[in-house]
């Protein structure tokens, strides 16, 4: 499914995540955003909700847009169980994170998967991006993109080095960042969805 016009975000819902996701979908949401980041998200409970929606409420999986994010170690709480080995290279972390997400969400594919942020170096960001491209080629992810990227040169770099432009960009869009005009214009120019 293509992303809906409005996406239900699942951060900070804690133990209420499953009930709130079910309620959101039953009240009209058809897109759900989460992340493989235990300190802010409960992907396992999103998965529980998805299973309930399909099995008890007759919602078809294909009618839902399910999106998650790979969060680098800098965004993780090391006191929580990590979705990957932090000693592994970024490429392997990204693949392990997506495998964890697929398992926790109880789905066979993701409609969208984003890098949660720019990594400490452009090379690391490109390594994670390369993993997402391969996961897309394998059919495990349909759309790939980035979150929290406010410099369009990073997006250009990914496209130039990989030959694959981000299809989705998820940023904060508010007065405090001037409404993110540079990245918004980049998305318009490259046909990427801006969330």
UniProtKB/TrEMBL annotation:
Transmembrane segments: none annotated. Residues 12-173 form the NADP-dependent oxidoreductase domain. GO terms for molecular function: oxidoreductase activity. SUPFAM superfamilies: NAD(P)-linked oxidoreductase (SSF51430). InterPro entries: AKR, NAD(P)_OxRdtase_dom_sf, NADP_OxRdtase_dom. Gene3D superfamilies: NADP-dependent oxidoreductase domain. PANTHER family: 2,5-DIKETO-D-GLUCONIC ACID REDUCTASE, ALDO_KETO REDUCTASE FAMILY PROTEIN. This is NADP-dependent oxidoreductase domain-containing protein. It comes from Hericium alpestre. The lineage of its organism: Eukaryota, Fungi, Dikarya, Basidiomycota, Agaricomycotina.
């Amino acid at each position: 499914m293509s992303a809906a016009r409005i996406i239900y975000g699942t951060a900070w819902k804690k133990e209420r995540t499953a009930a709130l996701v079910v309620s959101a979908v039953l009240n009209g949401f058809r897109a759900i955003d989460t992340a493989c980041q235990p300190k802010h998200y409960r992907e396992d409970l999103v998965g529980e909700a998805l299973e309930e929606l399909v099995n008890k409420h007759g919602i078809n999986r294909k009618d839902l847009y399910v999106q998650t994010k790979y969060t680098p170690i800098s965004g993780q709480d090391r006191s929580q169980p990590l979705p990957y080995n932090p000693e592994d290279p970024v490429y392997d972390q990204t693949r392990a994170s997506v495998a964890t997400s697929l398992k926790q969400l109880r789905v066979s594919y993701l409609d969208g998967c984003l890098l949660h942020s720019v990594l400490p170096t452009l090379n690391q960001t490109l390594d994670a991006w390369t993993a997402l491209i391969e996961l897309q080629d394998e059919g495990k992810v349909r759309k790939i993109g980035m979150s929290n990227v406010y410099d369009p040169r990073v997006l250009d770099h990914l496209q130039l080095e990989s030959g694959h432009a981000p299809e989705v960009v998820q940023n904060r869009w508010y007065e405090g960042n001037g409404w993110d005009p540079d990245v918004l214009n980049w998305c318009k120019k490259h046909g990427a969805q801006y969330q």
